[in-house]
Amino acid sequence: MANTKSAEKRNRQAQKRRARNTAVRTTVKNAVKKARETLATKDTTKSADAVKNATRTLAKAASKGVLHPRNAARRIARLAKAAKAAKA
């Protein structure tokens, strides 16, 4: 338990950040999952939109500091590679 006012404030801030980061991570996971599912169906128009949306959410999460930039870049590259393979 926090003993000082500043420690209590830091704790409140950490709780807010943790809640925000969890929400962003969940949206990222859902977007990537949806993209992978649409790629499996071979529907090119829906899959292109889903991959674009997942790429956007991953990039946003990286810019906000929720994900490490290289982690996001790696996931984006894998999605793009899967999209290219599904297209061919």
TrEMBL record:
Record's GO cellular component, any one?
ribosome
Which Gene3D superfamilies does the UniProt record give? Ribosomal protein S20
- Outline the segment boundaries, as ranges, of region: Disordered: 1-26
Task: State the source organism's domain of life.
Answer: Bacteria
Q: Which UniProt keywords apply?
A: Ribonucleoprotein, Ribosomal protein, RNA-binding, rRNA-binding
Q: Which SUPFAM superfamilies match?
A: Ribosomal protein S20
Q: Where is the composition biased (Basic and acidic residues)?
A: 1-11
Per the entry, what this protein does is: Binds directly to 16S ribosomal RNA.
Family recorded in the similarity comment: Belongs to the bacterial ribosomal protein bS20 family.
Q: HAMAP family given for it? A: Ribosomal_bS20
Name this protein carries in UniProt: Small ribosomal subunit protein bS20
Write the gene name.
rpsT
